[in-house]
Design goal:
There is one protein chain. The chain has helices at about 20-45, 50-65, 70-85, 90-105, 110-125, 130-140, 150-165, 170-185, 190-205, 210-225, 230-245, 250-265, 270-285, 290-305. It has about 300 residues and is mainly α. The longest helix is centred in the first third of the chain and has 25 residues, at about 20-45. The radius of gyration is 21 Å and the shape is globular. Mean pLDDT is about 90; it is low at about 1-20.
């Protein structure tokens, strides 16, 4: 699943800072620094450079702690936790989310509680505890007011859609994913529209509906290109490869795998490079392209030697 991150808190625009009391002026500067660190963390997260993302989210956390900015502290812990989810370090992710939830409960902020519960639910989802994940998502959703069309609501619906997909309830999965898509269309968030289309496409693939699977993944690709989301584009091409291979279309599958591999190589995400190399070797042999199969095999062997 394409992994999703939290945004920095909105900053107050202050004119004539020189007229502010010294401590208030310092607080504004610290919030600005925190926002800049969070922005950098989000940027590296999008690029799949997770160690750098954690570094900047920790810098933002330290700035928020230094001025006791409670909402900022909560959001920083959630941002750090989400990076560790995609790194598959669920213990560290849960530790950050637990701290975020503890503080959120102290200030009784229903939106921050909801966001953090959703993040904890995502850990359950990644661990294969689908019923526990759904229970956590439903609890988080119950805290959100009706018609509250924001990024966090769309993320909840998206996660619920993924959880229903994992349980094999494809109709409920599509219902919730389309609800997430509707919100993101209103918000005009290309990157997250792409995430929704991608997930919808994978559900149709599970249902054995090739036409709708390809149609939705192509829509994901369109919006990932609009968002200039290289990681998302690579995933879309990989998904198109997998879907075409599943339905016996080996030649187009091979071309999609090559496009995906080239992007992952450019991004220097070696785990994905290796995965695509194995698919390229397998598919090249299937279509009797032994020369390219041997080439990709040599590349894979060289990567393994360099470990």
């Amino acid at each position: 699943m394409k992994n999703i991150f939290l945004f920095a808190a909105a900053l107050f625009l202050v004119s004539g800072c020189s007229s502010l009391p010294e401590d208030e002026e310092g607080s504004v500067k610290t919030r600005n620094k925190s926002a800049e660190f969070t922005k950098s963390g989000n940027l590296f997260y999008e690029r799949g450079q997770y160690d750098k993302a954690v570094h900047f989210f920790n810098l933002a956390l330290n700035e928020n702690i230094s001025i006791d900015n409670i909402p900022g502290i909560i959001k920083s812990h959630n941002s750090i936790g989400r990076v560790f989810i995609v790194k598959k370090d669920y213990k560290t992710a849960l530790r950050n989310f637990t701290e975020a939830l503890r503080i959120s409960n102290q200030i009784n902020d229903s939106q921050l509680i909801s966001q953090t519960e959703s993040n904890i639910g995502e850990i359950f989802l990644r661990e294969g505890k689908f019923k526990k994940a759904l229970a956590k998502f439903k609890k988080a959703l119950s805290r959100i007011e009706n018609n509250n069309y924001n990024r966090y609501t769309s993320l909840l619906y998206h996660n619920m859609g993924i959880a229903y997909k994992k349980t094999g309830d494809y109709d409920k999965s599509l219902k919730h994913l389309n609800m997430a898509l509707e919100i993101n269309m209103i918000l005009k968030k290309a990157r997250y529209i792409a995430d929704n289309y991608y997930a919808i496409g994978t559900v149709y693939s599970k249902k054995g509906d090739y036409e709708h699977a390809v149609k939705n993944i192509n829509s994901a690709l369109e919006y990932d290109k609009k968002a200039e989301n290289s990681y998302g584009i690579a995933k879309d091409y990989y998904a198109l490869g997998r879907i075409n291979k599943k339905f016996g279309n080996h030649n187009p599958a091979y071309e999609y795998y090559k496009k995906s591999y080239m992007i992952y190589r450019t991004l220097q995400i070696e785990s994905e490079e290796r995965k695509l190399l194995r698919y390229l070797i397998e598919t090249a042999l299937t279509i009797n392209n032994k020369k390219e199969a041997e080439y990709y095999m040599a590349v894979l062997l060289q990567m393994e030697k360099n470990e």
